[in-house]
Amino acid sequence: PIVSTFHVQLLGVPEEWTSIKPANVNLNERAQAQVSIAITPPRKPTSTAGLHPIRIIVTSLNHPGRQSILTASLEINPFHDFAIGDVNPRRKRIAWRHRYGEVKMDITNKGNNSDPFLLIAQDDDNECRFNFVAMNGLRQLGQVDYAIPPGETQTIPVQVSPVKRSFIRLSSRQ
């Protein structure tokens, strides 16, 4: 009987995501074998959600120039995760001649898709108004949608203005 060695490989996803067992198979003429292929994308932003075309290729050194190719699609489901940095600066004084002060806030998309984030701002005592500067440069009162690509951080400018402006404010010294 003639024995041939066949090599199985998977293209279309990073090699570290895959496990092929066995990757090499020795077969007699007209024989068959099963090969197990496992694909395990890590839960990271680099494992982008959606369909990914893959190819399984079988080759043999005993038969150079010949190969068998199977095409398929791998669907990676989306997952959502994010981190919000502190507002910077935490306290802001606004001079009488200015209508608002600006603070910045970092948002990191730790998920694997670009679904928009809905940002809503309010203070506990309802003493401030918040305007977000949207991605198109327009100001939006109270809330805004931001689409942040997977694995990226964006700094969001927020304009804060007091609801009431007092001309003179007295406070006790402590």
Strand order of the largest sheet: 7-8-13-10-11
State which percent range the strand residues make up. Answer: over 45%
Please give the oligomerization state of what you see.
Answer: single chain
**CA-based shape:** rod-shaped
Low-confidence stretches: none
Radius of gyration: 29 Å
Supply the number of helical segments: 0
The helix-and-strand class reads mainly beta
Write down the overall mean pLDDT.
86
- Helix amount, in percent? under 10%
Number of strands: 13
Reconstruct the topology from this structure:
Blueprint: E1 3-11, E2 18-21, E3 24-28, E4 36-39, E5 50-60, E6 67-76, E7 82-84, E8 101-109, E9 116-120, E10 128-133, E11 139-141, E12 143-147, E13 153-162
Antiparallel strand pairs: 1-3, 1-5, 2-4, 5-6, 7-8, 8-13, 9-12, 10-11, 10-13
Give a verbal description of the structure.
The protein has 174 residues and is an all-beta fold. Helices cover 0% and strands 48% of the residues. The model has no long low-confidence stretch (mean pLDDT 86). The protein has a five-stranded antiparallel β-sheet, with no helix packed on it. It has no helices and 13 strands.
